[in-house]
Write a structure and sequence with these properties.
Oligomer: single chain
Number of helices: 14
Structural class: alpha+beta
Strand order of the largest sheet: 2-3-1-4-5-6
Largest sheet: 6 strands, mixed
Radius of gyration: 29 Å
Number of strands: 6
Shape: elongated
Helix content: 55-70%
Order of helices and strands: HHHHHHHHHHEHHEEHEHEE
Distance between the termini: 41 Å
Length: about 375
């Protein structure tokens, strides 16, 4: 049910999925815009051949302006991976033909169209909203986005009939209106299906199969994004480097299956107690990184204390599974790059190992050790 609910609201996806979705939407927006930039003016000779010269010239000017708008859209947002840019790209992609329809439809209604060939071509103008609504199906969108993007086209078609500009008989226009609404719903469902499929693929490729934490390849990408975002907004960014204590002895004495069980137990325990917005990455072997956006050093140490109090599970010999933890924070530690932040947390984790394990060392060498858990 949670996966289904995620398909209705655009804020329910993770930042990583949003970025992948934005890249896909923007690439398809540019492709569709480039295609329409070529096809739109190619129809001008047909208008000149079929319609009266004055009407054909009006339509030609309108097509040239639309083609220019499509060209500008096809050249925009290169290199961007922002979901906001992707949404605006979709808005502009649908706005251009909507404005074209709202101008061309009344324009055609002012001229007498009695010739069968003219009626066929005019009907093509009348069904432009259907083409654009159907086009929504190629984008991975949520239900809310589909409703907001399709609504202007549905309203534009309804408005032309209400004002008496419809090229079809009014009864046929109302029937077409109902068909347009159904098409918008089907296209939105197709977009939601794409989003669900993409989310599943991203989830499978970005998470470690054993612990369900982000894998290192994706984790580095997330670290870069979060670090750049924190630098731009001048907000704190804390990082905890978690290394399970004496993990090698579990593999040596009880086998790798018990070692895998210990990793699952630790990752599951961490996931249950992490705050919304915290990000867990399996860095390698028995090492995990926990990224805490908008968290200062004191807040990070409070979170670490909560993890230690909750526990990480039980070893095969019945003893508690413990970890050595190093905590670093971007602003306090003056980290210039994300790798500097990881290195500082790694150094403190190593210091915790050397100091007796089962403890956490934070900024300013603040230590949380066994005695504090009593």
């Amino acid at each position: 049910m949670a996966e289904i609910f995620d398909l209705f609201l655009p804020t329910r996806q993770s930042a990583f999925v949003q970025r992948r979705r934005a890249l896909l939407i923007l690439s398809r927006v540019r492709l569709v815009a480039a295609t329409f930039a070529v096809l739109t003016p190619l129809w001008i000779p047909i208008d000149l051949l079929i319609f009266e010269t004055s009407l054909a010239m009006y339509l030609a000017a309108l097509r040239v302006l639309a083609a220019i708008a499509f060209i500008l859209l096809a050249l925009s947002n290169r290199g961007s991976d922002s979901i906001l840019a992707a949404r605006w790209g979709l808005v502009w992609l649908l706005s251009i033909p909507t404005v074209f329809f709202l101008i061309s439809h009344p324009l055609l209604g002012q001229f007498t169209i009695s010739d069968p060939a003219q009626q066929v071509i005019a009907a093509g103008y009348a069904f432009l909203p259907f083409v654009m609504v159907a086009g929504l199906s190629v984008f991975p969108i949520t239900a809310l986005e589909g409703a907001l993007l399709g609504l202007p086209l549905v309203c534009a078609y309804f408005l032309t009939g209400l004002l008496g500009y419809q090229l079809l008989p009014f009864a046929s226009h109302l029937g077409a209106q109902w068909l347009l609404l159904l098409l918008a719903m089907v296209s939105t469902l197709a977009g939601m299906s794409q989003l669900h499929f993409m989310s599943q693929l991203v989830d499978q490729s970005s998470h470690d199969g054993l612990t369900r934490a982000y894998n290192r390849r994706v984790g580095e990408e997330i670290l870069i994004q979060q670090f750049v975002s924190a630098c731009r907004s001048q907000t704190p960014l804390a990082l905890a480097f978690v290394d399970l204590d004496n993990f090698k002895s579990i593999n040596d004495r009880y086998g790798h299956e018990e070692g895998d069980n210990a990793l699952r137990s630790a990752s599951s325990a961490l996931r249950k107690i992490l705050r919304r917005g915290d990000i867990m990455i399996r860095w390698g072997g028995e090492e995990f990184l926990v990224l805490m956006p908008n968290t200062d050093p004191s807040g990070a140490m409070i979170a670490v204390s909560r993890w230690r109090a909750a526990g990480l599970g039980i070893r095969p010999d019945g003893k508690p599974l413990t970890a050595s933890i190093g905590v670093a924070e971007r602003m306090v530690d003056a980290a210039e790059t994300w790798s500097d932040l990881v290195e500082k947390a790694d150094q403190r984790m190593y210091a915790a190992k050397q100091s007796g394990k089962d403890r956490a060392i934070g900024c300013g060498d603040i230590v949380i050790a066994q005695a504090l858990d009593a």
